[in-house]
Amino acid sequence: MTSGQAIFEELRFVWELMAAEYLFLLPFARRKKGWLPLAIGGLVLFSLLSQGYFFWLERVEQYGELGRQLVGQWYIVLALLTVAYSRLCFSITLCDALYIGISGYAAQHVVYVLVHEVLALAVFPAITRHVWVYAMVSALACAGFYTFLYCIFARRLSLCGGQLNPDTPAAILYHVLLLAVLMFCTFGCQRLFHFDPAIRLLSAQIGVLVCLMILGLQFFSYRMIQAGRERAVIQQMLRDGERQYAHSKELIDMVNRSVHDLKHTLRALRTMQESDRMAFVEETERNLEQYQRLVHTDNELLNTILAEKSLYCESRGIRFTCTLGKAELDFVSVPDLYTLLGNAIDNAVESVIQLQEEEKRVVQLSIQTSGGCVCIQTNNYYAGCLQLENGLPRTTKADAAAHGYGLRSIRYLAKKYGGSMSVSCRDQVFVLQVILPVPRA
Length: 441
Known about the structure:
The chain is of the alpha+beta class. Helices cover 66% and strands 11% of the residues. The strands form 3 sheets. It has a 5-stranded mixed sheet with strand order 3-4-5-9-8. A two-stranded antiparallel ribbon has the order 1-2. It has a two-stranded antiparallel ribbon with strand order 6-7. Strand 8 (420-426) and strand 9 (429-437) form a beta hairpin.
């Protein structure tokens, strides 16, 4: 008959592993609709599956030590299943699911070695006779170590915007190999611990050090990826700053020209006939009303961006049109909204400015809210042949590495807010669409 202590040994693996994985998942990945019932159901499911260890053990006992080693692989199967199940509850890439699985398994194994091997089997075996005391010590060890990991590592993952590693073949292979190395080392050290009592503490130390080394590797991998993103954003900001300076200088020149022209206009008004003067006033009022309709929204930042881009397009002989519905964009931070809309419009302007046909020098912007999502879309003509690569246009510029960050930053910001970016080109028209879900109050 299976003892309570044996049942707990199997349950604690699943509980500790899933707790470690959720420690990293919750601050990192975007939760899917209904994730909590799925997560609770997964905990119940894997708790039941953990008891399958005894089912398989009974059927391979005739093979002796080899049979027990084969049954030990059941833990690997459970660990892989929890990684796969995490993708049902969270919007996460396969690579990121493996990243979380590796980090969670390494964290769980540290607690397992310290509590269930060193304490319960080597230092104080009597504790296993009191299952509740044993469970309490395990829970306290998990709480302490997991809190430490959360403070120095897991919570930082919230800065990733929901994605750390893309699903490229090289990245998937790397994480699969890292997981294989982790499993091989931990099972090897565990085998030495039970096989030769003379080197128990040494094998436990090696097992803990391997797991800590893997956790350190995962942390520095995160830091390197984030540092690369920050460098790209800084470079983009520098380029935007240079472009913004040029825009501002041109706008100041336009204002200066307008002031100069206004002096002549005022002189002309003094000598105009009353009918000509009234016609001039009416035309000016119509222009002002058209301008107000273009830029007037409830979002002051949006007004500023549209006014700036409208004046810039006018100075370049580009017609800038807007279709604005209910633009619920208050949940987007000021820098992010400026970057997103600025890059979207600038990308369209950069394309149409190369066109000679006046009727094609048009940039269309549409912002609408429907079905709980904000849709931002730009339409513009383009010249030549445009090819898409990994969802983005392939640049035709010689210095490819220095270009393309505008659309990449838009895609990054869309994912940061749980949305998506898509591009398409048809009949020489380029369409950029960004969908952002509006958070529920």
